[in-house]
Amino acid sequence: MTRVKRARLAAVGVVATAAVGGLVIGALPVDHSAQPGVRPAVTAMDPSTFYNSAQQKFAAGDVTGGLESLQQMLSVVPVDPYALALQAIWSAQVDDAAGSDAALAKLNGINRTLHTTARNIIAGVDAAAQIVPDTSPKTVTGRTAIVILGYGLNGNGKMAPELIRRVTAGKAQAEAAASAPIVVAGGAPKKGITEAAAMKKWLVANGVDAGRITEEGRSGSTVANAQNTAEILRGQGINDIILITSPNHIRRAAADFAAVGLRSVATVTTATELDKYREPLTRDRQKGIRLEATRAAEIPATRAAGLPLPDNLPDTGPGLIPEFGEKLLESLLDAGSSAIDSLPAE
Known about the structure:
Number of strands: 8
Order of helices and strands: HEEEHHHHHEHEHEHEHEHHH
């Protein structure tokens, strides 16, 4: 079946599923009482409703409820890549390794890039949760960048004490890894000065070669820090980083950077409230960093009505509804609603 026909089905939310006692369209029955030759009416169930419900529940910390909503969506659209990615990521949160692996296996056959992203988030959250903050510079090998994360400037554009502590830790790491390039990340300008510009100025004034330092001065959040830094480092062929920030920020930041494909092979923190963050995150306390990691990876928080199908669905073989196959979907088009007929040709 052609992609155009699949798209026409998807545009009105028409999806076939098996049901005891007869055929069900969009989880609602077709009216078979119509006179011969008259096409039956179809009431569509928009799968975006389930997707949005799942994301709202994850944001509220209701992981079980979110997974139930995703399962409802996947019973309607079994090959939606974002739903499968979320199912894999959040099944890992509740220690359902079998469910997570099954979702990843399906996703790998649909969208390999998103499959990699989901795996990075799962591994990244697990690793981030175990980070024990410490202030010691690290020795690393291979192509690695030092990333120093910003902190809000004072109203006069001067660095706050905690930001000075971060760049001080960054300078020590720069001396321990003398060949590593450095990214200073942070926007939010005050008096026309970004966090990144203030950090670079301090580092250069304290003996760090300016040629090693790249400013990422656009971001106003940790999510944007990760996304924009990834863009910079991809251009340099770098995937591994030494991440530098405060103890209360390091785990969330490491998870966000993992979500965009940057692995924190080492971390260095300031000494601020160090003892308060010695214990690894419990599983329940990982919910927040897992949610934010999905945002860093740009997995949509909401989906608009009229959910489109993935662009990379195969035109033959297992497709939208593997258990029914192509012939049934052809018959649905031939006996579908007037809403289907009214869609423009492509």
